[in-house]
Design brief:
Elements: E1 2-6, E2 12-16, E3 40-44, E4 49-55, E5 64-69, E6 72-77, E7 81-85, H1 88-93, H2 100-112, H3 116-126, H4 134-147, H5 151-164, H6 170-196, E8 213-214, E9 223-229, E10 239-245, E11 253-261, E12 266-274, E13 281-289, E14 294-297, E15 301-303, E16 309-315, E17 321-322, E18 330-332, E19 340-348, E20 354-365
Antiparallel strand pairs: 1-2, 2-6, 3-4, 3-7, 4-5, 5-6, 8-11, 9-10, 10-20, 11-19, 12-16, 12-20, 13-14, 13-15, 13-19, 17-18
Length: 366
């Protein structure tokens, strides 16, 4: 049996039902050294405050708040409470799963309490919610950047901040430009290695990197993609891009990847391709450049149906790209080449199905 002893401030202490005795000597409280930021704090209407852990109120006692402290439990009538400040742990357990603003408030608390990992976890949850804005994306990128070791993830978040949310914070955009420059240099360096070591078959190119997607069937035929081990080189861990194409209402498929390359100093895009589909396949490349993401497509090249590897070169210095400005005639140079943002592999399959394999996809310097 338990009963409540009323206190002058309207609080009650829950005690065992025993005869009154001399209070025991105070004992050391193991939780006394716990960071107060990890405790719930109740601010009373009389100006006092109490710290501990707020327990869930039992059915029928919704007007009572129960606080667990290092000395026992206290029950506090709701009318005596001015406000409650939950600890980060308690607040994170509250029903805020779909409340972007609520989660962002928790993120700010976590940052103030120097608990960056908790802030990162909360932000990963927040940025996919309805109502997410540029600040959540920018802040997640900044925290991951400060943590280190996640450059590609930071770059992608900052791109989302710039391109989708139209973010304009100067330091963020400067850092994005720095990261894109670093990855641009990596792409160029890899291309040089491939050019200088053509006899080595298992140098991985752009085809083996994650980030490839299929374009919408609103404008292109259905397609599938997967990165797999090259079965023709059993002694090497060589990866190839397997592009499967299917018939549809359009005349070609499109598989694309973000690249962010300065193509002004690049002579061509080179790739190796193998066609086991049983009939000749035509392939073109398309590039999107500049802030307006303008579209430029190369002429097609034919891939023999002999299931052998063939090397194709698509000239980036040629004046034979088709684009909207030329009424889709192949008579344009690749404009804004310094800001080349996206690469498309396009299979002109019409009503046919089949697949091709892509390997050693790289920019070849001048």
């Amino acid at each position: 049996m338990r009963f409540m002893l009323p206190l002058a401030c309207g609080l009650a202490v829950v005690c065992a039902a025993e005869e009154p005795t001399t209070p025991p000597a105070p004992q050391p409280n193991p939780s006394a050294s716990k960071d107060i930021l990890a405790s719930d704090t109740i601010y009373l209407t009389n100006g006092h405050r109490l710290s501990g852990t707020i327990e869930e109120s039992p059915e029928g006692n919704q007007g009572i708040v129960t606080l667990r402290t290092g000395h026992g439990y206290m029950t506090i009538p709701a009318e005596n409470i001015a406000r409650i400040e939950h600890s980060l742990e308690s607040a994170s357990a509250l029903p805020t799963q779909n409340d972007y603003a609520g989660i962002m408030a928790l993120v700010q608390r976590a940052i103030l309490e120097k608990r960056k990992q908790e802030a990162i976890t909360l932000l990963e949850q927040a940025i996919i919610l309805p109502g997410a804005d540029s600040e959540g994306v920018r802040l997640l990128g900044a925290l991951l950047d400060d943590q280190g070791g996640q450059g590609s993830r930071v770059r992608d978040l900052y791109r989302l901040y710039r391109d989708t949310y139209q973010g304009t914070e100067p330091k963020t955009l400067e850092r994005l430009a720095e990261l894109e420059g670093m990855y641009n240099q990596y792409e160029i360096a890899l291309a040089r290695i491939q050019q200088e070591t053509k006899e080595i078959k298992n140098i991985e190119g752009i085809e083996a990197r994650p980030g490839w997607s299929n374009s919408s069937t609103n404008h292109f035929n259905p397609s599938e993609l997967e990165i797999i081990r090259d079965e023709t080189l059993p002694n090497f861990e060589n990866k190839v891009l397997n592009l499967k194409f299917n018939p549809g209402k359009n005349y070609k498929t499109s598989t694309f990847r973000r690249i962010n390359v300065d193509a002004t100093g690049q002579r061509a895009i080179r790739l190796s391709v193998r066609n086991p589909s049983g009939s000749v396949v035509e392939l073109s490349l398309a590039l999107k450049t500049g802030d307006e993401w303008k579209y430029y497509e190369t002429p097609t090249q034919k891939i023999p149906a002999d299931n052998a590897w063939h090397t194709l070169n698509f000239d980036l210095q040629a004046v034979n790209f088709k684009t909207a400005a030329t009424n889709w005639n192949h008579s344009s140079p690749l404009e804004n080449a310094a800001d080349t943002r996206e690469l498309h592999l396009q299979i002109h399959n019409g009503g046919r199905s089949g697949n091709i394999f892509i390997d050693a996809l790289a920019f070849i310097p001048l």
